[in-house]
Design goal:
This protein is of the alpha+beta class. It contains seven helices and 15 strands. α1 packs across α3 and α2 runs antiparallel to α4.
Length: 307
């Protein structure tokens, strides 16, 4: 199946929900499933601290001013789709002026992307595709374009890829919605991708139709209100008090997100996002009406998620 442009963009962000700016997070109780904090410190030096981890294989570490390391593993049902994800990473890097550097020791489908010397923030990314999995390691804020740093990142990439079976990703069903609910919203025979208990997406063939549910560990009514205010001039917005204080939806936003309907709410201490893209037209009030019962039926699952 050829991935749609929307689905490729979704893959590039790994369905990760960005944390609210300025949010204070306690260190996660568990280590990353693919890389231990001490392994990161041994390769990169510095006092790297685990900032976030997800059983699906999405983790980040920070050493303060020295740099931030982000890890993401994305699984696809077949190798051909994984190849499209890898190619999309490479194309996106080239479009932003990054230099492509091959990594023969890691195979033909492995490359570094190095930021230009005059970039506002220096970065070094490693992208590896192996069978149905694409692994990315992104190092920001540190002087990445050195032989030692590239060697360290390559070693970390090998370690993480060797443990990829631990990443909690599967296809077919998930806790957020049923195949029948997804089909009613985006079309017949949706492909459902579960990325742990916190993220789920559904797509239909090569179209851009998609349904996404995802959560992040920090939420507050103030954050929701700030998000709403930030998009007020570019989207049509609807308050959703039936989903809790501060909950809202927005649609008919400025391009490139003009087809999508987004819903934001707080469940316990977590923020939950939903995105519905019909694929062939902008989503609107009728789509929101159809999506609301699906969101309400998922609240019990969202409440069970650990902070």
């Amino acid at each position: 199946m050829k991935l749609s442009a929307f689905h490729r963009r979704t893959c590039l962000t790994a369905l990760a929900l960005a944390l609210p700016a300025g949010a204070a997070l306690a260190a996660p109780a568990a280590d990353c499933v693919l890389l231990a904090r001490d392994e990161v410190r041994a390769q990169l030096g510095g006092a790297y601290t685990l900032m976030s981890q997800d059983p699906a294989g999405m983790c980040s570490w920070s050493s303060g001013a020295s740099g931030t390391l982000m890890l993401n593993l994305l699984r696809r049902p077949v190798a051909g789709e994984a190849a499209q994800v890898f190619d999309a990473h490479i194309a996106a890097g080239r479009d932003t002026g990054q230099q492509l550097v091959a990594v023969p020791a890691l195979g033909q489908r492995a490359s570094f992307l190095v930021s230009p010397a005059d970039a506002p923030m220096q970065s070094l990314s490693l992208i590896i595709q192996d069978q149905t999995d694409t692994l990315t390691l992104m190092l920001y804020g540190a002087a990445g374009n050195t032989e030692d740093t590239r060697r360290a990142l390559a070693s970390l990439g090998q370690q993480a890829l060797a443990r990829r079976a631990k990443a909690d990703q599967s296809f077919g069903t998930c806790e957020w919605f049923t195949p029948a609910q997804a089909a009613a919203l985006i079309g017949p025979k949706p492909q459902i991708h579960r990325m742990g208990a916190r993220h789920c997406s559904a797509s239909v063939g090569s179209t851009s139709a998609a349904l996404v549910a995802m959560s992040s560990p920090v939420a507050s009514v103030e954050v929701l209100r700030n998000m709403k205010a930030g998009a007020a001039d570019s989207c049509q917005q609807v308050d959703l008090p039936e989903l809790g204080e501060g909950a809202f939806a927005q649609h008919h936003c400025a391009a490139p997100g003009h087809l999508a309907l987004s819903v934001y709410l707080q469940v316990g201490t977590r923020q939950v996002n939903w995105v519905l893209n019909p694929g062939t037209r902008p989503a609107g009030a009728e789509d929101l009406k159809a999506l609301l019962p699906v969101i309400q039926s998922s609240l019990a699952h969202a409440e069970r998620l650990k902070p």
